Amino acid sequence: MKKYATLFEQGGHRWTIFYFDDVKANHLVATNEYLVQHNDKYLMTDPGGTETFPEVISALGEVVDIKKIDQVFCTHQDPDIFSAIALWLMMKPNIQVYLPSIWISFMLHFGGQKANFIPLHDEGTILNLNGLDLQVIPAHFMHSSGNFHLYDPVAKVLFTGDTGAGLISNAKDFVVRDFDKHIQHIEGFHKRWFGSNEHKNQWCERVKNLGIDFLCPQHGLIYEGAMVETFLDWLYNLRVGIIEY
Ligand SMILES: [Fe+2]
Ligand SMILES: [Fe+2]
User: Fold this and answer.
1) Closest by alpha carbon to 170, among 131, 221, 108, 229?
2) Does residue 235 sit in helix, strand or coil?
3) Which pLDDT score, from 0 to 100, does residue 170 have?
4) Among residues 82, 165, 197, 235, which one has the fewest Cβ atoms lying within 10 Å of its Cβ?
């Protein structure tokens, strides 16, 4: 069952996390979706695949009129990010979908129209959500070769896609409480899915002074408060790109 919780709320500005507390019978990796609201406009991050679409829509519908979601931000090209694009466009034909520019022609294989797809170029940019400037931060090779994160400098939320992601089943919580116990869920994933130590460490340097209250991955638990620095230190010192045959 998909649940949701408010991470940040101030006036008409809100971040909501949607997360699973169980595992589906078909062995899908569980995903988190985030809804950013600013003065009655809404942006969705990495909204998910075709298999989870009904559950995502049903959970979203409990907190927002789906038709009010005008913008979608996609960190990268994977199927768990947005293989449901054709379904979203059926429901909301004029939705704006922000994607890494290098992936657009590949992602059109999921369906949809190029007119809906807005390229994010390698250097990043600012997305305006009804007066709120959200920073699109380059995170290339983290793990995808064309990859971005989204930073809200007011809420101090950094949405990190697969960075920080944990492969966790039946999590009853959505926040990391004990980092040492959490390592078992993130270590193998980052070693195997991430290929570049150089880009990883450049990214750690890029984000460490942003001011992050919530570091929010697309899978598993989020990092809050002091746990953000604990995670960034751990990631900086991890060697990635490791494969064992
Ligand atoms: Fe991915
Ligand atoms: Fe993912």
Assistant:
1) 221
2) helix
3) 74
4) 197
Sheet bearing 13-20, strands edge to edge: 2-10, 13-20, 33-38, 41-45, 69-73, 96-100, 117-120
Q: What ligand is nearest to the CA atom of residue 139?
A: 1
Who's near 157: CB < 8 A, 6+ residues apart? 7, 8, 15, 151, 212, 213, 214, 216
* pLDDT mean by block of 10 residues, the chain; 245 residues: 94 95 74 96 96 93 94 97 92 94 94 92 98 98 98 98 91 92 97 97 97 97 98 98 87
Exposure string of 106-135, with b = 16+ CB inside 10 Å and e = fewer, is ebeebebeeebbbebeeebbebebeebebb
Instruction: Output the CA 216–ligand 1 centroid distance in Å.
Output: 14
- Which one of 3.40.20.10, 3.60.15.10, 2.60.120.20, 2.40.340.10 gives the CATH number of domain 2-237? 3.60.15.10
User: Hey, what amino acid is at 117?
Assistant: F
What is the distance in A from the centroid of ligand 2 to the CA of 236? 20
The domain spans of the chain are: 2-237
Q: How far is the CA of 176 from the centre of ligand 1 (A)?
A: 21
Q: How far apart are CA 78 and CA 58, in angstroms?
A: 22
